[in-house]
């Protein structure tokens, strides 16, 4: 059964996010419950549909975020096993099976503990400064950085051991530690600095997960260095004191039963002489067995003496090494340019799980992904911002790998098209009312295509007017036509304007040609034979005219163009409202009184009086009025895009009307966020473009 809770409930944002996250998880569980198809049994005979409940990561984490979190958490067990294995191996390396005093297994275990402590300390510090732990951090850094710390521990501990063997009879632990640390402080510090610099370069990445991982690595290397040069020597001091006191490594509280060889000074001299012989002969001295049996001694004996030293000093093996090195260099040079690149989403999932199979099938059969572009606190009501958003989106969809819908999916472009009376089509099923019909303020304009955006012919929203017959005199420049229209609507050719002013008008030649071409004689033979013949007749007619006749033709053509202009009727009504119909169009008059007065006045007044009313109304328009064309100048462009520049309050109001009157709003889904939700007049702080 389905129950719907109608009454509103008051919850916090955190509670709402938690509920939404649980809903997404329940969606997956419900889709998988009882499903015995390729996700669970692996049976190819199952007829059950493939899993389709993979939820997005919008607002709260969805399937992929949950998958990453689960895979990140699953690393805990693996790196814990790794730490345990490393600890066991280190203890084995430091273990001396025949001499409990020289054995340092406990020291090795505690040294590994210091490295692990430093790494987790770096994670804690990273958390304090706001760096998130991600799948890269926990699947790479524990295995890499703890190993680096243990490397430093081996270098320091072997230096201490060497100094201790050489000087324990004549110097105490403090002197030995000082000598050993002076030997290794340079190499340990320099290697740490190099490691830090490499991760500093890695931190220059623009990928959040990559550079945050680099930050954690830098912090960890610094902490590992600090611990290894401070805490490890202190731990070594305790271990040297144990050895000096002849106490067992396995139980430091008890003295060792292993006796110290007699005549230590003589033994030390013998060992030094044997080392001198070893250096000349390349072999370990026989008395080295007095140190007992440990992993380091065994490795030295078998790896160094029998393998490395024997190979590196003999000509045949030297040739083998040279050949192998050259082969590796050639192989690298040949294959480095053809290395397979890429990381599939299925690579993040565990093998043979529904997540991995889902991504494999989606990549194989549905290899497409949604593209969205997010914008922040921009001046969305600015024409340049609107064109910039359009251009940025088209730069993405112009990539050959992206298949995108029309540029109208840029919500500011769709809004401008809805508000442009020459573009909006309220006869379509998606639009209830166009912008100017919903509110006269909501009127878009044309703006030169300064960024080279797509035209309508190739899926864009911009229009090329170069071949528009009505704009042919201006080569498709809409702004040049607007500039001409302003002079026309402003009465620059009215009867009261002196002839010399008309003659000096920049539109004189254009209106003269329009007037002559309208002469009926041009439609007769021979002028109608061709366009060239018609132009010849026009030129002949103009040449035969006197200045007075030209002025008369220009004024007549201007009257015709004025009355044919799309704003003429609106300006006549505005002029009548301000004059003869002022009483009928007042706020106290019935709604039908004003239109009736307009009709009556149009019937009673002659054409010249209506022209005067239209000119007067246009001249009275305030600056910035949508119908005023006073600010336009020829642009030199013939491609124009619809834009919608309005003051913030009016822009927000029109956005609301667009949402209510254009069903494409729900398809575009711009996810507009404002300073105050529900108040459209507030500035927009976030919006989204998408659909590819």
State the share of residues found in helices, binned by percent. Answer: 55-70%
Q: Outline the low-pLDDT stretches.
A: 36-43, 45-49, 261-289
Q: Which class do the helix and strand fractions yield?
A: mainly alpha
The overall pLDDT average reads: 81
SSE string, helices as H and strands as E: HHHHHHHHHHEHHHEEHHHHHHHHEHHEE
Count of beta strands: 6
The coarse overall form would be: elongated
The main pleated sheet reads as: 3 strands, antiparallel
Helix segment tally: 23
Radius of gyration: 43 Å
The percentage of residues in β strands lies in under 5%
Distance between the termini: 38 Å
The largest beta-sheet arranges its strands as: 1-6-5
Structure description:
The protein has helices spanning 13-32, 63-94, 105-128, 135-167, 173-202, 208-244, 264-281, 295-312, 315-335, 354-365, 383-397, 411-419, 435-438, 478-489, 499-503, 508-517, 531-544, 547-564, 568-578, 593-604, 607-619, 648-661, 664-668, and strands spanning 372-375, 445-448, 463-464, 639-643, 673-674, 684-690. It is mainly α and 692 residues long. The strands form 2 sheets. A 3-stranded antiparallel sheet has the order 1-6-5, with no helix packed on it. Strands 2-4-3 form a 3-stranded antiparallel sheet. The two termini are 38 Å apart.
Topology of this protein?
Layout: H1 13-32, H2 63-94, H3 105-128, H4 135-167, H5 173-202, H6 208-244, H7 264-281, H8 295-312, H9 315-335, H10 354-365, E1 372-375, H11 383-397, H12 411-419, H13 435-438, E2 445-448, E3 463-464, H14 478-489, H15 499-503, H16 508-517, H17 531-544, H18 547-564, H19 568-578, H20 593-604, H21 607-619, E4 639-643, H22 648-661, H23 664-668, E5 673-674, E6 684-690
Antiparallel strand pairs: 1-6, 2-4, 3-4, 5-6
Helix pairs in contact: 2-3, 2-4, 3-4, 3-6, 4-5, 4-6, 5-6, 16-17, 16-18, 19-21
């Amino acid at each position: 059964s389905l129950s719907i809770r109608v009454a509103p409930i008051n919850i916090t944002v955190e509670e709402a996010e938690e509920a939404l996250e649980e809903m997404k998880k329940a969606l997956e569980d419900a889709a998988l419950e009882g499903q015995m198809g390729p996700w669970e049994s692996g049976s190819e005979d199952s007829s059950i549909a493939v899993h389709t409940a993979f939820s997005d990561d919008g607002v709260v984490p969805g399937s992929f975020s949950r998958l990453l979190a689960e895979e990140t958490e699953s690393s805990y067990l693996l790196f814990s096993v790794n730490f345990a294995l490393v600890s066991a191996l280190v203890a084995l390396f430091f273990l001396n099976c025949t001499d409990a005093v020289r054995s340092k297994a406990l020291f090795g275990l505690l040294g590994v503990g210091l490295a692990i402590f430093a790494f987790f300390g770096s994670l804690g510090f990273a958390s304090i400064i706001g760096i998130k732990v991600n799948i890269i951090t926990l699947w790479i850094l524990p295995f890499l950085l703890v190993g680096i710390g243990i490397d430093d521990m081996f270098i320091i501990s072997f230096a201490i051991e060497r100094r201790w063997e050489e000087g324990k009879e004549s110097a105490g632990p403090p002197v030995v530690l000082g000598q050993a640390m002076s030997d290794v402080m340079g190499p340990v510090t320099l290697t740490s600095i190099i490691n830090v610099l490499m991760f500093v370069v890695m931190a220059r990445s623009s990928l959040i997960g990559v550079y945050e991982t680099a930050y954690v690595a830098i912090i960890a290397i610094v902490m590992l260095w600090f611990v290894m040069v401070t805490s490890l020597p202190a731990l070594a001091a305790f271990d040297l004191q144990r050895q000096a006191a002849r106490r067992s490594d396995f139980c430091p509280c008890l003295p060792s039963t292993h006796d110290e060889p007699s005549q230590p000074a003589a033994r030390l001299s013998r060992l030094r002489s044997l080392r001198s012989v070893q250096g000349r002969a390349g072999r370990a001295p026989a008395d080295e067995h007095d140190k007992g049996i440990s992993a380091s001694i065994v490795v030295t004996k078998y790896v160094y003496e029998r393998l490395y030293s024997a190979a590196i000093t003999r000509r045949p093996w030297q040739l083998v090494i040279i050949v192998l090195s050259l082969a590796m260099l050639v192989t690298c040079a040949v294959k480095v340019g053809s290395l397979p690149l890429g990381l599939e989403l299925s690579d993040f999932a565990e093998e043979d799980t529904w997540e991995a199979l889902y991504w494999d099938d989606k990549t194989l059969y549905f290899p497409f992904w949604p593209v969205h572009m997010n914008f922040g606190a921009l001046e969305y009501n600015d024409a340049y911002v609107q064109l910039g958003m359009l251009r940025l989106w088209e730069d993405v969809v112009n990539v050959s790998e992206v298949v995108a819908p029309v540029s109208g999916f840029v919500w500011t472009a769709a809004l401008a098209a809805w508000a442009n009376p020459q573009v909006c089509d309220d006869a379509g099923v998606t639009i209830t009312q166009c912008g100017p019909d919903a509110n006269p303020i909501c009127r878009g304009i044309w703006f030169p295509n300064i960024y080279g955006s797509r035209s309508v012919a190739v899926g864009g929203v911009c229009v090329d007017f170069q071949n528009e017959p009505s704009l042919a005199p201006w080569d498709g420049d809409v702004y040049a036509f607007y500039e001409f229209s302003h002079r026309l609507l402003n009465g620059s050719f009215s009867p009261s304007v002196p002839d010399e002013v008309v003659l000096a008008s920049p539109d004189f030649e254009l209106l003269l040609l329009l007037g002559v071409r309208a002469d009926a004689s041009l439609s007769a033979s021979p002028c109608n034979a061709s366009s060239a013949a018609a132009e010849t007749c026009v030129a002949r007619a103009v040449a035969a005219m006197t200045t007075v006749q030209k002025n008369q033709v220009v004024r007549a053509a201007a009257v015709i163009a004025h009355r044919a202009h799309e704003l003429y009727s609106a300006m006549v009504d505005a002029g009548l409202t301000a004059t003869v119909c002022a009483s009928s169009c007042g706020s106290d008059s019935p709604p039908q009184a004003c239109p009736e007065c307009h009709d009556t006045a149009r019937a009673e007044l002659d054409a010249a009086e209506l022209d005067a009313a239209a000119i007067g109304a246009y001249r009275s328009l305030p600056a910035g009025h949508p119908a005023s064309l006073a600010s336009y100048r020829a642009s030199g462009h013939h491609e124009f895009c619809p834009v919608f520049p309005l003051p913030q309050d009016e822009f927000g109001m029109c956005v609301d009307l667009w949402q209510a009157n254009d069903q494409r709003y729900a398809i575009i889904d711009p996810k507009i966020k404002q300073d105050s939700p529900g108040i459209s007049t507030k500035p927009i702080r976030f919006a989204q473009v998408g659909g590819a």
